């Protein structure tokens, strides 16, 4: 069989791996390239494999960098089934529709600019909402954790809980060949064990080949409790200064996790009971509703909250702002409010106008609670930029900037090492979804006979 890597190869976004068994061609994930290149060239070039020749897509989870090119895949000829867990199907629907909407808006902006310059050639959106709906129509069988799904004759896939976001999975593909039984395990993104909401990652069954993520493979996260205290301290300090607290938030998982912590902080008198919190993201609001329908995915403590009729994601001061006008009106808030808005890396979305109104004020706090890739506005602010360009205007950064790393949804080096040690039988590990220094540091710790760090579109006979 052959395996080739068409994204997240020596990079952290665009996950897209093709397994060719000789009889079947199975794609695992089809994510968007993000960061400085978001919506640009890299996403629109050829996949490196013919979409029409692919029999099936197995989707590990609903993050944009894992599902964001599925509408494009369908637009370019893919006619097979997409298989994922039920929660992933529900969330990927949100993510793809939101991405298509952004692509259409971006294309409209380009068209307006071109019209003003008198140009006739206009670049169309990468894909439209109709393409996203076509992709959603390709979701077929849903996978349950631990129960093999028959994908094609003789080829089966088993999804294991990856503990990364709601519905996330590692996927084991198995089939018989003339030489015997073959097995290849795709880690997807592996969760950070010990978080309060989701159950920890499972150890998947044995596999001869493992394709594994390495986002944080060169570092250790701070202990969780310390990060939660740091979050409360940063919020209380900004409240004392009379400033707003901006939290660039990924709509899936992180937003819900923060709501959970706010609720806990209020209950333990570590945050004011009336704390105004704006969840300024239609996608995060919809994702929270999906979370509320999947009580089974959570830790026993969270499940018992649900059973006693308490919603772990609701607090008294929560304001859900779906409409754009409501979002704009938040700018009239003098101070003292928590504003959660996307995108998490500040590459677009409503966080930009909140930054414009707040980042120059010394009383403001900007709190980063997630990963920000090199080249993104988020990363520039984290790295201490003295001023940033927003809506064509240079704006000084005078806000307090906090980076709280312990909330990561990704396993750190020790957790990744433990995860792969639990897998029996492995002969080769392919490292993906990491920056090169991270992969190199991790490769040095592995005892597996063969370790590869594939380049984009590189193919291996295995
Ligand atoms: Zn992810």
Set out the fold topology:
Blueprint: E1 2-5, E2 17-20, E3 25-28, H1 41-44, E4 56-58, H2 64-67, H3 70-75, E5 81-85, H4 86-116, H5 129-136, E6 139-143, E7 149-152, E8 155-161, E9 169-177, E10 180-186, E11 209-213, H6 224-241, E12 245-248, H7 254-267, E13 277-279, H8 282-292, H9 300-307, E14 318-320, H10 324-329, E15 338-341, H11 351-358, E16 365-368, H12 377-382, E17 387-390, E18 393-396, E19 400-403, H13 413-421, E20 428-432, H14 436-443, E21 450-452, E22 459-461
Parallel strand pairs: 3-4, 4-5, 5-6, 10-11, 11-20, 12-15, 12-16, 13-14, 13-15, 16-19, 20-21
Antiparallel strand pairs: 1-2, 1-22, 2-3, 7-8, 8-9, 9-10, 17-18
Helix pairs in contact: 4-5, 4-8
The structure holds zinc ion.
Residues 61, 63, 66, 164, 189 line the site of zinc ion.
Describe this structure in words.
By secondary structure, the protein is of the alpha/beta class. It has helices spanning 41-44, 64-67, 70-75, 86-116, 129-136, 224-241, 254-267, 282-292, 300-307, 324-329, 351-358, 377-382, 413-421, 436-443; strands spanning 2-5, 17-20, 25-28, 56-58, 81-85, 139-143, 149-152, 155-161, 169-177, 180-186, 209-213, 245-248, 277-279, 318-320, 338-341, 365-368, 387-390, 393-396, 400-403, 428-432, 450-452, 459-461. A hairpin with a 2-residue loop joins β9 (169-177) and β10 (180-186). The site of zinc ion has 5 residues, from loops.
